[in-house]
Amino acid sequence: MISEPELEGEWPAGRPAGAARPDAPSASPPLSPSPPPGGGRVPWRWALGGAVLASVVWAGVLVVQERSAEAGPPIRYRHAENLCDEAPLRMLSGVGGSIDGRTVKHGEGPVQDWSYCGVGMSGVDRMPGYENQVLVELHKKADPGPEFGAGPGLEPGTRLEGAEVEQVPGLGERALLTAQVGQVRLQVLDGGAVFTLSAHWFGVNGGAQDPDDDAVKAAVIEDMRELMVRLRK
């Protein structure tokens, strides 16, 4: 009887069936995870970089805003110590008669420069007399835009309450014409400058003729236009 041939590498007796043979090749080591696409860059780094960039941009915006606030609103007009020399009021003179008196005031400071001119006009040929006031404010720090048209100015004579207000195109950034019985006021905002010109007439009850309201309004607008041109830097 031919016996079973001995198998090369036969399992020794008693070795568990699940044990690896000593001469068997070792198992392959576990594969390391492959790097993510994009050369190994991790997404959180992109998020961190975006946040840093946004912080830098926002910091730059704040610096620009702070510098703009420190610089104040733009002022395109010069300060006049004698505003009456710069405000001849030629058109109002044609409506209100000859000039018979002037009052000049001015002030300068770190926040605001201002100048004032009061002009009296005597009525002729049954025309009423006029009291005209001109005020120029140059705001160096705070923007006067949010409060434009709300305040009375520096002189009580520039106050007009409960009157009709209309926009005037072509003067500065904004221009408001306010009218009521016996008085017209024009205010103009342009950057940090605020101009006010008011015309008040009197003597109508004493026999003088009522002035032409449209003529007075047109005169105020043209005299304001000339003043702004003369003070422009």
Structure write-up:
This protein is an alpha+beta fold and 233 residues long. 25% of the residues lie in helices and 26% in strands. It contains 4 helices and 7 strands; from the N terminus they run αααβββββββα. Strands 1-2-3-7-6-5-4 form a 7-stranded antiparallel beta sheet. Helix 3 runs antiparallel to helix 4. The N and C termini lie far apart (129 Å). The N terminus is likely disordered.
Q: What features would you highlight for this structure?
A:
233 residues; alpha+beta; seven-stranded antiparallel β-sheet; 26% strand; disordered N terminus
Task: Describe, in short, the structure shown.
With 233 residues, the chain is an alpha+beta fold. The protein contains 4 helices and 7 strands.
Q: Would you identify the regions where 5 or more consecutive residues have pLDDT less than 50? A: 1-14, 16-20, 24-29, 63-69
Helical fraction:
25-40%
Give the strand order of the largest sheet, numbering strands 1, 2, ... along the chain. 1-2-3-7-6-5-4
What is the average per-residue confidence, as pLDDT, rounded to a whole number?
A: 76
The gyration radius over C-alpha positions equals 43 Å
* β-sheet strand percentage: 25-35%
Distance between the termini: 129 Å
Largest β-sheet summary: 7 strands, antiparallel
Q: How many β strands by DSSP?
A: 7
- Label the overall shape: elongated
Structural class given helices, strands, pairing? alpha+beta
Order of helices and strands: HHHEEEEEEEH
Q: Specify the number of helices.
A: 4
